[in-house]
Amino acid sequence: MTQAKLIDGNAFSAGLRDEITARVHEIRDGHRITPGLAVVLVGEDPASQVYVRNKNKRAAECGMTSFEHILPADTPERHLLTLIEGLNDDPMVHGILVQLPLPRHIDSQKVIEAIRPDKDVDGFHPWNVGKLAAGGVGLIPCTPLGSMMMLRDHLGSLAGMKAIVVGRSNIVGKPMAHLLIRENCTVTVAHSQTRDLPGEVRAADIVIAAVGKPEMIKGDWIKPGATVIDVGINRVAAEGGKTRLVGDVDFAGAVQVAGAITPVPGGVGPMTIACLLRNTLTAAARLHRLDIPEAHPWN
Ligand SMILES: NC(=O)C1=CN([C@@H]2O[C@H](COP(=O)(O)OP(=O)(O)OC[C@H]3O[C@@H](n4cnc5c(N)ncnc54)[C@H](OP(=O)(O)O)[C@@H]3O)[C@@H](O)[C@H]2O)C=CC1
Ligand SMILES: Nc1nc(=O)c2c([nH]1)NC[C@@H]1CN(c3ccc(C(=O)N[C@@H](CCC(=O)O)C(=O)O)cc3)C=[N+]21
Ligand SMILES: [Mg+2]
Fold it and tell me: Pathway involvement (predicted)?
């Protein structure tokens, strides 16, 4: 049995970040504009702090400015909304990301809707959700966008292929399904009440796993030769009291059957961050009405 080709998200995202860096330098030299990203984290969750630091580090590497706002877990909703209003009006800020999930006393949907749609680099505001669903131009959620870039790079045209998205969250599953529809796939969206999930997955040429259950999707569910995008990020116990990251797909099983597969780590995760920077560049260019060529014109 031949092994699946590994789709290398580290290498792909590094190339994408190089393209972004070149464009950032162009608009800095040509227009004296530096794209700025504001990242807001409420609470002291150490894992989220690592993500926020990573986003800021990558932004700086691409020549962008980043603004980090770390607020205590008991921050009142009103304070967060006031901070967002300030960022909406700040001309140095072109992209705003509020790290999810938020503490329970804060209404996430209210917070998402407070962000100016043209600075909403997560693509979670109803305006951007609507643009994606209706086929217009907005900002596309980073994880689905990065996943689609890897699919298009590996497969070329997706027209007529059967795709399954396992998971229907607003941040991954639903926007991924819309992108696949736009690329002319025949799309199934599965969730916790789907009957015969293994059977549904077996019919698919493209499998997007976004469930949040470690290694749930087994190798013998995968159609031979299928392309597998594993969005899952699960920290599980490992030997010696340590932990390790695994995806939502049983990688060892799936790699024997699939045509191509993304690893965890080193797959979708790094692409998500690169797409966040790309959306920040896109937002800055649109806010200043600059005519910059898109890195991937199909987006
Ligand atoms: N790589 C990256 O950049 C990112 C990775 N992630 C990771 O992706 C995964 C999904 O994240 P997210 O979408 O936020 O998760 P959510 O918990 O919001 O959604 C999970 C989805 O999976 C479905 N589901 C749960 N259990 C099953 C099951 N047994 N069978 C079928 N479907 C099931 C749920 O169904 P129902 O709707 O019926 O409850 C739900 O639709 C997580 O591992 C997360 O860490 C997330 C964001 C970015
Ligand atoms: N408003 C908002 N937008 C998000 O996009 C968002 C969010 N909230 N909340 C949390 C999830 C999760 N997420 C990840 C981003 C990068 C990696 C990533 O870089 N992963 C590395 C490994 C990182 C590690 O080693 O821990 C990899 O897969 O190779 C993972 C997960 C974005 N999210
Ligand atoms: Mg969620």
Answer: One-carbon metabolism; tetrahydrofolate interconversion
